[in-house]
Amino acid sequence: MTNRTISIPTAAPMVSSFRCIACGVTRDNADHDFRCNDCGDLLEIFYPGWHSEKMAGNAAGFKALWRQRKTSRRAIDESGVWRFRELLPALRDWDQAITLHEGNTPLYNLPSSARMAGVKQLYAKHQGMNPTGSFKDTGMTVAASFARQGGFRWVACASTGNTSASMAAYAARSAMRSLVVIPEGKVSWAKLSQALDYGALTCELRTDFDGCMRVLNDVVKQWPVCLLNSVNPYRIEGQKTGAIELLEQFDWQVPDHVIVPGGNLGNCSALGKAFLELLDLGLITRLPKISVIQAEGANALLRSIREHGGKKLIAMQAQTAATAIRIGNPASWKKAVRVLQATGGIVEQASEIEIAQAKAEIGAEGIGCEPASAVTLAGLKKLVKQGFVKQNEIVVLILTGHLLKDPEFTLKFHRGDLFKGTEYEQQAAALSSHQRAPITLDPTADAVVEALEQAEKSIPQN
Ligand code: F0G
Description:
Oligomer: single chain
Bound molecules: ligand F0G
Shape: globular
Strand order of the largest sheet: 4-5-13-10-11-12
């Protein structure tokens, strides 16, 4: 298409409404818990005006507009989320968006992991390269902006660490107070330190994430606080932009598979919603298969699908060293089931050993991610073996968190301590070729040169 045929749309605000995902009731406003008044299920945001002439039939115009904004110095154009604001709910004043220049994250190729998994083309969309180090920022900028527009003084979340870090940062940027409710001793100290630094009131409860969520749901009924967990549908809208940006990075060619870690299941819901909406609006002509990978010890979605066809959730006591996804009662499971069904994706699980190995393999490519993100590569290997992913297909892993989010996991892994005293100790011996523990030497050049010689000898010659 030539430039002459592209009409650049004007950034008209989009009217949005709430709809219950179960009973379909629609309403203009949501209650404090973002649940349906009639049946209690989750709400989603939809856009009744999308099929007006303004949106329909102008795919090229929108693509050009979003690209053009990358050269603008306006804060909402510099944001990789608000840049796509035609597909987001409209703020009363766009320039009141609370933004930390989130989004615009890199897409890397992973040639070595591709060989490991048995596919020719493997990419990582690294959402850990967001301002607070995780994908949560893309949803938080939208949800926090709407919380402030709604006049809230307090925002709150229960978290395995990343949501709290992100929420605390966006609250601090906008002079809102933040309440973080986390499971004591089950959140990496790197993430905890972020919440503290950004000034959150941080409550460590003697329970797990699911227990924290239960307590917070009660708090929300008693205190005027805006809930910023991913049941808040504004979070999901912001997280959609990861998918839009990914397509832009592929010049709007749709990859065959997108593989996402599954915890509370907001992210796969968001990415799926984005692809479905883009298809509906004619910006793409087919869908990728979206598959979800869970940790074996936190596999509520997998069990629900395998044992109940996705009709009923089997909540569980979750246990995994990938603490970000240590969730046994995922709030957005119904949304996730819909995405799997609509895109033809599947759910798989990865063991603790498989997660640790996959994380080391991604790290060895100079990319790095947190354990919860590495489940994607571990899961992909299985999907290739099962024949669900074919060798020639283009696969994208969504890396959700930065390597530095959980340094303790990485250090323990390389020192060989990660599985000491656990049921996995014997199996972990197989990981030794991936481990690169630091070596302590005398302070002489000779000692260091000898270490170099040893290292040179251990490099396979081919
Ligand atoms: N990866 C990372 C790094 C996460 O922090 C999370 C969730 C997930 C994957 C799973 O995403 O919940 O949308 O399925 N972390 C939440 C938190 C629960 O509190 O930070 P999901």
